[in-house]
Task: inverse folding
């Protein structure tokens, strides 16, 4: 087997072993969207009327609407969790071990991302199964079709986490990421309410939502669940992933990156 | 040809100089102690030697491979033990070793006998199934040294590997690494503890970002003890 592939599989295996070992993380990853689905959606269903809009061909309940957003939320949190574990790895020294491997650095970082995506896929599918048990189901082919798009959105959000991890000096600074990245990204997106609904209250917020790459990740998942490909969302997610990945590789470059500043 | 060659290396964090025109060589089969008080620049030098930092000027070559032009070849020829432990505590010794072997691109088939050999060399083979968390500090360090040997490097770099260990364990680990040098490996051992250095070891004294002395321990210390010479050279007394 190719040396690069061997390394990638080992990195995925390590991430999986870590995840399986942290049962509370799995539980938290599932409970978080379930609380939104059961509690938040129940309250919002009455307050928020949804009109028919693509990809939906009929009226849908609010629970059905927010499922793609909650899938995105799982991946967003997982991306940040991976970022947190990267900062931890840097503090603990295992990042050094990874970066002194004789394989190309970009490949090692990409392998880290893929490992994080694998973990997020487990979480998303577990969540979709539980949602189905609550009676919120989608066309069967939708469950298969979202896979490649979940991989893409996972890569994009993971790359964002990786980029952040190359700039954060200590674990303690991570709380700031929660406040300034995760929450704005989630709330100013189409995860919880459609763009037109947002535009009714604020045009500026609606514009921000429309530009937010996380909105596009959510829409990509939403359309794929009904067997459709949202090309604009796909383009934005791929382009954003490329930019974040490129910036992360620079961030971890010993000559140019932030590692140099962090070494002080 | 030197196994480790450092030429005119400079490095600064902003305005603060960390390495000032650092040059030295270590031949194959030599144990070289990079001696220096805390803050002398040893860890920065290690970061440069391992490719984690890129110097603005100067050259590093490991086993004949230039770190600037052929970093991957240079890294493949090097085993490293960092000052900070870099082990997964909740998995077994063997699992940790296999993870590292895979990062070097080794298949399981190739890695298994090498892991056994490396663990046996450091008297750790019987602990291969234990979780790292159950090991004491000395065993963890031995395991990290064994791990650094899996890909059969020609150069071994150790950054203060005995920090926090008791005297007997420090002594045992130092002996192990001296044996590795005797077997033909070039070893660079950063330390501020003179009792880890034998009389015939090469010593490179780094102080305030500069190399201020270089030679065998015996030649440098002359009639003094190594500790006295070190204290005097670095103005600690």
Result:
């Amino acid at each position: 087997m190719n040396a690069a592939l061997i390394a990638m599989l080992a990195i995925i295996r390590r991430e999986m072993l870590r995840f399986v070992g942290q049962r509370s993380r799995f539980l938290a990853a599932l409970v978080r969207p379930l609380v939104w689905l059961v509690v938040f959606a129940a309250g919002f269903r009455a307050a928020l009327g949804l009109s028919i809009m693509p990809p939906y061909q009929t009226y849908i309940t609010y629970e059905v609407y927010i499922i793609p957003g909650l899938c995105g939320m799982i991946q967003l949190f997982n991306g940040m969790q991976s970022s947190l574990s990267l900062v931890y790895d840097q503090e603990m020294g295992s990042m050094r071990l990874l970066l002194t491997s004789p394989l190309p650095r970009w490949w090692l970082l990409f392998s880290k991302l893929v490992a994080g995506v694998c973990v997020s896929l487990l979480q998303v599918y577990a969540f979709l199964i539980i949602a189905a048990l609550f009676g919120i189901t989608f066309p069967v082919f939708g469950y298969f079709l979202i896979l490649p798009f979940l991989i893409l959105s996972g890569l994009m959000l993971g790359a964002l986490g990786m980029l952040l991890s190359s700039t954060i000096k200590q674990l303690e600074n991570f709380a700031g990421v929660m406040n300034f990245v995760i929450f704005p990204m989630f709330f100013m997106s189409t995860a919880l309410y459609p763009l037109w609904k947002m535009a009714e209250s604020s045009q500026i917020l609606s514009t921000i939502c429309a530009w937010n790459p996380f909105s596009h990740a959510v829409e990509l998942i939403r359309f794929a669940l009904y067997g459709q490909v949202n090309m604009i969302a796909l383009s934005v997610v791929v382009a954003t992933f490329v930019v974040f990945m490129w910036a992360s590789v620079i961030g971890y470059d010993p000559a140019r990156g932030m590692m140099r500043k962090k070494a002080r | 040809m030197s196994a480790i060659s450092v030429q005119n290396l400079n490095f600064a964090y902003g305005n603060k100089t960390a390495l000032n025109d650092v040059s030295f060589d270590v031949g194959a089969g030599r144990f070289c102690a990079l001696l220096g008080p805390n803050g002398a620049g040893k860890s920065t030098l290690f970061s440069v030697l391992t490719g984690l930092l890129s110097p603005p000027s100067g050259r590093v070559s490991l086993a004949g491979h230039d770190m600037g032009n052929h970093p991957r070849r240079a890294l493949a020829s090097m085993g490293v033990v960092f000052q900070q432990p870099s082990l997964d505590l909740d998995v077994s010794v063997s699992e940790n070793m296999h993870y590292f072997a895979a990062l070097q691109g080794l298949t399981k088939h190739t890695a298994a006998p090498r892991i056994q050999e490396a663990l046996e060399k450091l008297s750790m083979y019987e602990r291969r199934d234990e979780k790292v968390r159950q090991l004491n500090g000395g065993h963890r360090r031995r395991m990290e040294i064994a791990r650094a040997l899996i890909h059969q490097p020609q150069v071994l770099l150790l950054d203060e590997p005995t920090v926090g260990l008791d005297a007997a364990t420090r002594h045992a680990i130092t002996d192990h690494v001296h044996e590795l040098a005797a077997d033909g490996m070039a070893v660079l051992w950063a330390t501020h503890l003179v009792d880890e250095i034998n009389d015939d070891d090469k010593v490179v004294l780094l102080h305030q970002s500069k190399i201020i002395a270089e030679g065998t321990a015996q030649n440098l210390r002359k009639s003094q003890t190594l500790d006295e010479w070190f204290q005097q050279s670095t103005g600690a007394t």
In short: The first strand of chain B starts at residue 4 and ends at 13. The radius of gyration of chain B is 18 Å. Chain B touches chain A at residues 13-14, 44, 47, 50-54, 72-73, 75-76, 78, 80, 82-88, 90-91, 95, 98-100, 102-107 (CB under 8 Å). Residues 198 and 217 of chain B are 7 Å apart (CA to CA).
